[in-house]
Amino acid sequence: MYQIKTYNVISQAGLKELTPDQFALNQSDQADAIILRSENLLNTNFSSQVKAIVRAGAGYNNIPLDQANEKGIAVFNTPGGNANAVKELVFFMMGVCAREIYPALNFSQENIGADVSLRTEASKNSFRGTELKDRTLGVIGLGHVGSLVANLGLAYGMNVIGYDPSIHPDAAWEVDRAVKRASNLSSLLKNCDYLTIHIPYNEDNHHFIGASKLQMLKKTAVVMNFSRSGIVDDQAVLKALDQKELKFYLSDFPSAELAGRPDVLITPHLGGSTREAEHTAARMAVRQLKEFLLNGNLINSVNLPEINEPFSTDYRVTIVHHNIPNMLGQISSIFGDFSINIDRLSNRSKGDLAYTMVEVNDFPLAKKEEFLKALQAIPSTIRTRFLEHP
Ligand SMILES: NC(=O)c1ccc[n+]([C@@H]2O[C@H](COP(=O)([O-])OP(=O)(O)OC[C@H]3O[C@@H](n4cnc5c(N)ncnc54)[C@H](O)[C@@H]3O)[C@@H](O)[C@H]2O)c1
Ligand SMILES: O=C(O)[C@H](O)COP(=O)(O)O
């Protein structure tokens, strides 16, 4: 029985797939695995029992990856699971801004009365908007979210420029060929009317949009941040807005300093908060977790390599280890020492870590603990698991 702990509201559409004969949900503090959304676990010290942490969503900057790597904990996210929801919110908010919808709605609320139609006609000029068609949309980051945003921009008749120097080849296939590739970031910044950022928050991307980049924008530009608060320097935005060097800021991340301004619209981190996105992300999270706990497969892990093989033998031994030479030799020789014949061996690496999955049919179960101890004693082994065919 695997103990699963959840944080935040995880959709039942996913959780119901954790069959009670194999998984106990929130019944013990000694969790084998954690499923979460935005809960900040950066200061959490995980017990040696925790084998996996699954982010039902895209951004995993709330999970301490260094600690996970040290302890051989597999960390997963659910890429693309909520991307459509973010794309739709970006365009809703762009429309709200372009068409002066917020002050217009306030006007209607405040002027409900007999002569409302008269006042409405007289006030129309105050709420005259602009169209998105023929405006230039700059998209930084063309992954799961950014590619959808860029393509929808084209459908709106916008001129779309994209920037993503390390785009994944799979992601590049998703981007419409009519999206222009910015040769450098400054050419994108100088030309766009709307700038939207869809990159992960990490050390490199802290305050990615700050004073110097804001200064390159047109004074009439609108900046949109539906990625993470730390990616945009709010103080620099505030200054640019005050000095009329920026027209509008749309963000999904509330901040005290930006609150209450007519040139700022902030949603309370709602990008992934649709029923559909929450269901999809939770289902992906649970399915990936089950594959890992029951079969040792790694699907959408952010710190370990992808490996997804059918479990066709009686047993599997999985080893998380440092990505260094001669690990396979050392691992195989321990199998040899215990006279265990290897039916299949898969080994993949990602950065400094590697994952080896060894499949066997005949295994001396009486010697299991001694065998796992020998594997664990290899200096660069981080974590071993023994799995029986489910
Ligand atoms: N507001 C929300 O509710 C919400 C929902 C989903 C995702 N997000 C945020 O959006 C981010 C992106 O999500 P995704 O699913 O598209 O991720 P993704 O990994 O599919 O794509 C991110 C892209 O950004 C690119 N990139 C990284 N650093 C860059 C840089 N400095 N300049 C240009 N490109 C850069 C990468 O090459 C990659 O193609 C997530 O990390 C998350 O923080 C927010
Ligand atoms: O990174 C994400 O997936 C989004 O920011 C959504 O976060 P949430 O699951 O906490 O709503």
Automatic annotation (TrEMBL):
SUPFAM superfamilies: ACT-like, Formate/glycerate dehydrogenase catalytic domain-like, NAD(P)-binding Rossmann-fold domains. Residues 316-389 form the ACT domain. Keywords: Amino-acid biosynthesis, NAD, Oxidoreductase, Serine biosynthesis. The lineage of its organism: Bacteria, Bacillati, Bacillota, Bacilli, Lactobacillales. It comes from Xylocopilactobacillus apicola. This is D-3-phosphoglycerate dehydrogenase. Catalyzes the reversible oxidation of 3-phospho-D-glycerate to 3-phosphonooxypyruvate, the first step of the phosphorylated L-serine biosynthesis pathway. Also catalyzes the reversible oxidation of 2-hydroxyglutarate to 2-oxoglutarate. It is an enzyme of class 1 (oxidoreductase). It catalyses: (R)-2-hydroxyglutarate + NAD(+) = 2-oxoglutarate + NADH + H(+); (2R)-3-phosphoglycerate + NAD(+) = 3-phosphooxypyruvate + NADH + H(+). Its EC number is 1.1.1.399, 1.1.1.95. Belongs to the D-isomer specific 2-hydroxyacid dehydrogenase family. Pathway: Amino-acid biosynthesis; L-serine biosynthesis; L-serine from 3-phospho-D-glycerate: step 1/3. GO terms for biological process: L-serine biosynthetic process. It comes from the Bacteria. GO terms for molecular function: NAD binding; phosphoglycerate dehydrogenase activity. It holds the Pfam family 2-Hacid_dh_C.
